[in-house]
Design brief:
This protein is an alpha+beta fold. The chain is 31% helix and 27% strand. It has a single domain (2-243), classed as PPM-type phosphatase domain (Phosphatase 2c, domain 1), CATH 3.60.40. The protein has 7 helices and 12 strands. Helix 1 (46-61) packs antiparallel against helix 2 and helix 6 (205-212) runs antiparallel to helix 7 (217-229). The model has no long low-confidence stretch (mean pLDDT 88).
């Protein structure tokens, strides 16, 4: 676990292998001094997935802090698009593995003053806990979400679809990367959560809210992981919690 020093925005991040997986393909970034946070969930086997998620957080960490929010958003976009090109071009076709994947989800949060911007590709999420209510700010790029948006199937049936959790976007998954973006105003007392699907997929919104309602980011992070590990924890778990 990493806890940021005493900046106006406090944050804490943690990743865990979970109960089933042998290796951890997740990575996170918690740079309160740069007002930059991210979670990446790698895919394509432990070597490829871990490489992709690590490259994302390492390259984001090198971005400059100077400039307007618009410039910082452009820098994040450029960084992820360059990594997408690199990961797709480095795919190696072999007889044993005709279509290898080196990719990762990415959810990135930037804050300047009371202005926040979240960018993402994949199903790692951004939540806002405000006034005792949990809001999901990001929308999953998954086949399940597509079925819901198109109204092709009711939620219960869609959830049972064999491809429900298949991603429709990720860094490195396709030659063209499309990032979604949401801008919002942050207020004193707001708590933000970035997390991989391994954390939220077995937890209700009430359970996530119970974790985020703790009095400090460190305690909130500890509580969330306790709640997640009380369940099956079949996937890697990663979370970053941010609070002013």
């Amino acid at each position: 676990m990493i806890v940021a020093p005493d900046f106006p925005w406090r944050s804490a991040g943690r990743t865990h292998t979970g109960k089933v997986r042998a290796r951890n393909e997740d990575a996170f970034l918690a740079l309160a001094d740069k007002r930059l946070w991210a979670v990446a969930d790698g895919m394509g086997g432990h070597q490829n997935g871990a490489l992709a998620s690590r490259l994302i957080v390492e390259h984001l960490a090198e971005l400059p802090v100077q400039g307007t929010m618009d410039q910082r958003v452009k820098d994040v976009r450029r960084c992820l698009h360059l990594l997408n090109r690199r990961l797709t071009q480095e795919l190696t076709v072999t007889a044993e593995q005709p279509d290898p994947v080196i990719g990762s989800t990415a959810v990135v949060l930037l804050i300047e003053g009371d202005h926040a911007v979240c960018l993402w590709a994949g199903d790692s999420r951004c939540y806002l806990w405000r006034g005792g209510t949990l809001f999901q700010l990001s929308r999953d790029h998954s086949f399940y979400e597509e079925l819901m948006q198109e109204g092709r199937m009711d939620p219960a049936k869609a959830a049972q679809h064999p491809s429900a959790r298949a991603l429709t976007r990720a860094v490195g998954a396709n030659e063209t990367l499309t990032l979604d973006l949401v801008e919002f105003t942050v207020y004193p007392g707001d708590t933000l959560l970035l997390c991989s699907d391994g954390l939220y997929q077995e937890m209700t919104t009430d359970t996530i809210g119970r974790g985020l309602s703790q009095p400090s980011v460190s305690l909130a992070l500890q509580k969330l992981f306790e709640l997640a590990m009380d369940g099956p924890a079949r996937d890697n778990l990663s979370a970053v919690i941010i609070r002013q």
